[in-house]
Amino acid sequence: MYAELNSILNASPDNCKQGEFTLISDRKADASFLVHHFLSFYLRAGCKVCFLGLAQSFSHYSAVAQRLGVSLTQAKEKGQLVFYEGLKDCLGVLLREGSTHESPTLDFLRPHCSDLKGLYDFVSSSVARVGDAAGTGPWAPPVLLVDDLSVLLSLGVSAGAVLDFTHYCKATICTELQGNMVTLIRCEEEEEEQGDEQGSDVLLKGLIHQCSLALQVQGLLTGYCKHIHGEVEVWWRGVANGMQMQKKVLQYKVHDKGAVFFARGTSSVVL
Amino acid sequence: GTASAVCFGGSMAAPMKNTSAPAGLSFNSTSFQKKSRSKLVSIPGTRPSVQNGQLLVSTGVTSLDYVIGGGLAVGTLLLIEEDRYDSYSRMLLKYFLAEGVVCGHELFVASAWDHPDEILQELPAPILDDVASVTSMEDQAQSCDPDNPESMKIAWRYQNLPKVQTALASSARFGHYYDVSKTMDADILQRSKIHMFFLPEEAHSETGALSPMTEAYASLLKSIHGVIHKEGFDGATPQSKVRNIMRLGLHSLGSTLWGDDLCCREKPTHGHALTTFLYALRGLLRSSLTVAMVTIPSHLIQNRAVMGRITRLSDTAIALESFRGSDRETNPLYKDYHGLLHVRQVPHLNCLVCEVPDSKDLAFKLKRKQFTIEVIHFFFQKKNPFFGFSVSFLPLK
Known about the structure:
Chain A is an alpha/beta fold. Chain A is built from nine helices and nine strands. The interface between A and B is large, with 48 and 43 residues.
């Protein structure tokens, strides 16, 4: 996890907030570095994490987590991390045409199914408390991380179905279980036309409305710069801790073991 | 000792076996295997990335390897946005396949228009200045074996092969040069194992109706998966099998010939057919010793959002913009070049960030013996400020 980002968000693994839905979005930039931050953050915080790794293989996330000082393999073995590897599972569905109901998680890839209920069922069973009726498992509170929702759009799921999914997840994880959610949505370079159902911009608007914290990452307007990879706008949307509706813009640079954040114009290269 | 399993999924992390073994020796030879405790055996035509130890192969174009960060990582996809007439993109595909033949890799060529055979007949001829290095290899092999009778002038491994082919017998060198005015000898080509997928000749099946892909993409996916599995590139075969790389060359995906209307309509009915295919392809690539090059006629795709998704579902992505037919063709500024090359995306797998050379303003030129890529710089001459300017081009190092 990135220490600077923790202080900006006033977050700490020893005392992480509850009921938070964090939305990460990017346009002309790659915000996946923030996904790795939150994954290592919540694992260190001792939360039970359900990670929908749709974009890359497990070994990729594992290798990066290693650099951030967290072992995904150990977390899985301990039962703290439930990792869903989308790439592996999709082949089972897309290659075995005709056979039904193996892995209902990716039901939306089958004809006549356009919702993400299967995916939601997977998530809710992963975060459900096992055994203890009092509701205090060794890991608390549960966290859902999704990398990333745009993959679902690429696989033909409509923006509406994705919003239904995040709505149900938020209700279960954030509200009911007092856990947290972090999702990434990747947007196109140009603004899309109005009314485009498949569009990531439509989805983005809906997600911003649902979330309590939005981290919107953009590439620099002036183009690629080696020392400043982009800008992130932090938008506190939730009602908690008096930061409601505040925005803050920072520039960032990703390096081998983390990321640094600084106010606009204060990059060490510039000063 | 037993060599451990090779790591898959684009995560060919260091440590690599040290390269002290003489170049060209196959990893089956006893002197190599006995001492080997490494987790990764050395495959001809590959090298570890200096940045993160990932296993790289050459695209067949040395300057392109440089621009994309040293080479193509095994387990990843290189997307090439075709130039308007698919002349230079097709050339890059041929370099990629030719490099595969020269390195002894296995090939899978898919096309919906020209028969893959036609593409293979056009592969450029490798420039064989490797003969000198092979000779020293032979001497080395000879000196290692005191029992070798003096009458044998070449190493025992090569004795049954005609001398002209020894340069390519097991070329472990990374990256080669080609003469595009000549085509590759048929006998060199024949020594490679090549799989072909020609859409018009494939049997029609009902798969298309059962998945978000078009029937053509579903059929192609199934064929690729079948070959990967059957030939053991996904680790299915036992350890004793010689490890190799499979190169997939997929021509002009997204065009109407693949049953896709992505190139005809702004709001295509098959808007996610190709993206679904690319996602599944990523799944196959990450779990096998394969590397893929896909060309697409992006200049025909009107929906920019879909183009963005296609790019993100690829790993490395470049676009070629040819000057032919445009007013730049006669512009003296560009007279030494055939077009511009745009690096759209470079992956950072298994790490947070990857160092890549600054790649703005790149131009390419296809020369007989080299496909060059250079940065364009414009310098203004101070002497005659009213008369225009002189232009200087700085080549990449």
